[in-house]
Design a protein that fits this description.
The strands form 3 sheets. Strands 5-4-1-6-11-8-12-10-9 form a 9-stranded mixed beta sheet, with helices on both faces. By secondary structure, it is an alpha/beta fold. The chain folds into 2 domains: 253 residues, Alpha-Beta Complex (Spore Coat Polysaccharide Biosynthesis Protein SpsA, Chain A), CATH 3.90.550; 38 residues, no CATH class. It has 11 helices and 13 strands. Helix 8 packs across helix 9. The radius of gyration is 20 Å and the shape is globular. It binds 1-O-phosphono-alpha-D-glucopyranose.
Length: 297
């Protein structure tokens, strides 16, 4: 029987040190692109892909995330009193049905693989998605929705993939490509952050995965890998070695690395330019800035 993907894991336990001092008191995932926090983009993408259960892997200091998805009766009452219907409408996207969302704490920062493993009892024996909210993908059809469609065909594990230049392979999980069929590639393996000259290809894994329970079983071994952490990449590679199908999927869309300051700023500009209420002002400002920079050169 064909299995549907209805559960998604959102690993949000990281300390976000690259954004200190902001992340001293604000979880990185609550930082906003225009007026929506990173985590809202991730949730919207998951919903568009048909996800019904949202599992957050958190850590100490992430309380703001739980509050964000909670009802805010005092705020809503005040907005209602002032007749701010469109703001009440906007708030709706942050509300979760009871039981739709679960929070699990990762007690120690042991790596992405360990974070995913923390959700094993909630996932049980079903395929599941993993979304890393740092990777924001602007796309006509959401990246995860594209991958769910591909999964319905293949029923094998699928990871989002993107071609990167040689000097970038050491920042990503890299696919060992068996057959390149264009938007889909089959794989012989996967390596986490290979050094220069060691990468099996230039096809990098981006933070969207659809995985089968076999990967969770592989994580039971709690094997440490690159950086002394339990890597999701290694568990997927072990599943491939056991004969599981794992496909790379070249999604249609633009990915922003919001784990880096530059990527975050680029995403902010791109999302603002996509908004009718902000485009003209921002465009005029960017044009002026470019012209005055050029004139000063
Ligand atoms: C994680 C994964 C890596 C993947 C990347 C995508 O690395 O371990 O395999 O390519 O996300 O963004 P991180 O960026 O958390 O170091």
């Amino acid at each position: 029987m064909r299995k549907k993907v209805t559960k998604a894991i959102f690993p949000v336990a990281g300390m976000g040190t690259r954004f200190l001092p902001a992340t001293k008191s604000v979880p990185k995932e609550i930082m906003t692109l225009v007026d929506r926090p990173l985590v809202q983009y991730a949730i919207d993408e998951a919903r568009e892909a048909g996800i019904k259960e949202f599992i957050f892997i958190t850590s100490r200091g992430k309380g703001a995330l739980e509050d964000y998805f909670d009802n805010a009766p005092a705020l809503e009452q005040e907005l209602r009193k002032r007749g701010k219907d469109e703001l009440l409408e906007i708030l709706k996207s942050t509300n979760m049905e009871s039981g739709e969302i679960a929070y699990m704490r990762q007690h120690k920062p042991l790596g992405l693989g360990h974070a995913v493993w923390c959700a094993r009892r909630l996932i049980a024996n079903e395929p599941f998605a993993v979304i890393l909210p740092d990777d924001v993908i602007a796309a006509e059809k959401s990246c995860l929705a594209q991958m769910v469609e591909a999964f319905e065909e293949t029923q094998g594990n699928i990871v989002a993939a993107m071609d990167v230049p040689d000097h970038m392979t050491s920042s990503y999980g890299i696919l060992d490509v068996k057959e390149d069929m264009g938007s889909i590639v089959s794989t012989n393996g996967m390596v986490e952050k290979p050094g220069p000259g060691e990468a099996p290809s230039n096809l990098a894994v981006i933070g969207r995965y659809i995985l089968t329970p076999t990967v969770l079983q592989k994580l039971n071994s709690k094997k440490t890998g690159t950086g002394g952490e339990i890597q999701l990449t290694d568990a997927i590679a072990d599943a491939i070695a056991d004969g599981e199908d794992v496909f790379g999927y070249r999604f249609k869309g633009q990915r922003f690395d919001c784990g880096s300051k530059s990527g975050f700023l680029q995403a902010t500009v791109a999302f603002a330019l996509a908004r009718d209420d902000l485009r003209d002002d921002l465009w005029a400002y960017l044009n002026d800035t470019v012209h005055s920079h050029k004139a000063a050169q």
